[in-house]
Amino acid sequence: MTPVPHDPATDRAASPRRRTVLAALGALPVLAAATAATATSAAAAGTAVVIDPSVRRQSIRGFGGMNHPLWAGDLTAAQRETAFGIGPGQLGFTVLRIHVDEDRANWSREVATAKRAAELGAIVFASPWNPPAAMVETFVRGSQTNARRLRYDMYGAYAQHLEDFRVFMADNGVELHAVSVQNEPDYAQDWTWWTSAEIVRFLRENAGAIGTRVIAPESFQYVKGLSDPVLNDPVALANLDVLGAHLYGTSFANFPYPLFQQKGQGKELWMTEVYYPNSSDSADLWPQALGVGEHMHHALVDGGFQAYVWWYIRRGYGPMREDGQISKRGAVMAHFAKFVRPGHVRLDALANPQSGVWTSAYQGGSAMTVVAVNQGTAAVSQQFTLAGTAASAVSAWVTDASRTLAAQAGPAVAGGSFTAVLPAQSITTFVVSTSVGPEPMPPTAPGTPVAGAVTATSAALSWAPSTDDVGVVRYDVVRVDGSGETVVASAATTQVTVTGLAAGTAYAFAVYALDAPGNRSPRSATVAVTTAAAPAGGCGVDYRVVNSWGGGFQGEITVRNTGTTALTGWTLSFAFTAGQVVSQMWGGTATQSGGAVSVAPADYTRTVPAGGSVTLGFLATQGATNPAPAAFALNGAACG
What we know:
Elements: H1 16-19, H2 36-40, E1 49-59, E2 62-66, H3 69-72, H4 77-84, E3 95-100, H5 111-119, E4 123-128, E5 136-141, E6 144-150, H6 155-171, E7 178-180, E8 192-193, H7 196-205, E9 213-219, H8 224-231, H9 234-238, E10 242-246, H10 258-263, E11 268-273, H11 291-301, E12 307-312, H12 328-337, E13 345-349, E14 357-364, E15 367-374, E16 380-386, E17 390-399, E18 406-408, E19 413-414, E20 417-422, E21 426-435, E22 450-454, E23 459-462, E24 472-481, E25 484-491, E26 495-498, E27 506-515, E28 527-530, E29 539-549, E30 552-561, E31 567-568, E32 572-575, E33 581-586, E34 588-593, E35 596-601, E36 607-608, E37 613-621, E38 632-634, E39 637-639
Parallel strand pairs: 1-16, 2-3, 2-12, 3-4, 4-7, 6-8, 7-9, 9-10, 10-11, 11-12
Antiparallel strand pairs: 1-13, 5-6, 13-14, 14-15, 15-21, 16-20, 17-18, 17-21, 19-20, 22-23, 23-26, 24-25, 24-27, 27-28, 29-30, 30-37, 31-36, 32-35, 32-38, 33-37, 34-35, 38-39
Helix pairs in contact: 7-8
């Protein structure tokens, strides 16, 4: 999208050359809300929608939108709850897209909303519009004499720029699920152009330096000529995790992508930006807003997309109005977002059972969700049949001209079937309680692990949790190397310390989540860890009590390097056995869990010269006795 903020009602209206590709859909007739009378006179049911749980299509990653504080202003605290909460009057979004600004000074703007979205269970991914100015050159592209592209000698630096943004967000509490190479590289008058060959080169040679999933190419109109070369290049494809696309003006007939279905096994397919049908109408205009429901249906059913992401979350034409309340377009999105949750799987179902009616079905645990859009001007009766599955109850929610996500009494269930009236020009979501046996849905992938304390023989790892309908019961940490992967630790929580490592050795670790029925998640992205080197030639530790008083004492620890080379960077470990607790330390920073104490150096004690020493002092509490620690270890190696 353009970096020039406009009036919410007219965003992008001044750029018809970019959006003239949007098809003229024509005015839709005015809605007449369905009443009890219209329900009884509804048109006869068309072909029954048979839903087959045994024929499973794509898994769903989620639904969401873009937050761009620099161009559109940040969401407020209340608006973050509306966007990513799942209660009444909320959108239930589970995906947030943010901006990788070329200027690092603007990165902090992204943190507040991203952090809260992640806390509410959303995944966060980021897209860049431009590299830093020093990495860009101008060239002539047709009639554009000042076109911009990434300098060919700056590909590595640009990958590091994207990695630096990932690390910045992680340091501020947000683990990015993915990072894109470039927003709309094929429509870049206002930003940076990329050819398909340039994208392939970057994926082949540089994308591996990015420590999370990689998205490309984010074509503005799902131009297959930009992504075909990636799918046809095994090395580039190996470094691609998500094929991203925008659907501005893309006809429904062009939503399917046979080459991706053929060659994209193990990759995900996301729709990462759109507004529909335009940015000029109010998002509350009905029945025009209902068109969003049909667009989402075709994206999920015809296109097989796993994520559907709107442009600005808060805008006059967006899912949230400028006053912070959800719009009619937003309510239509919420019919999917609040009930089709991450990890649900789309099931085989008749997509167009009668004129103007579009249906899709999704499985999550022991519940099945059916979303039905009726574009017609009359209410219709529609039968739904669950093949091989007994339904016990149905709940329903409807949005039409007069109602917004209004709860309805569900239709009666007979065996595996129910018949419902779909009001004129409406969207209805049905949640069906079923008996489906073992929960078939795997957990979502855990967040990229983050390394904490690393010694010569161990590494502390933590990660963002997975989500799952029945709950994650265990995480397995694996060591990844050229011969495959090996489970090295398991935990019920989202942190673990991997032990038994070799000093001065590089490792790569990743995490799987497992649920109660034994389903395993996709593997997380990997984290690289290099263990500390063991002290060359040995080390020594002297410990003494300098002074003591009732309930406390002052201690001193001298760390000696008895080797022949300087020791730079160290971690000292020991254990108190009589309840002593360190309350203050100088020369280092102490962390304590129970009796176990770990000490990291201060800047001025970080280097211990060959044959030299550094001294630490501390205050601690004590009980009736105050025995000295029995042993000390430096970087995981025992010290005398």
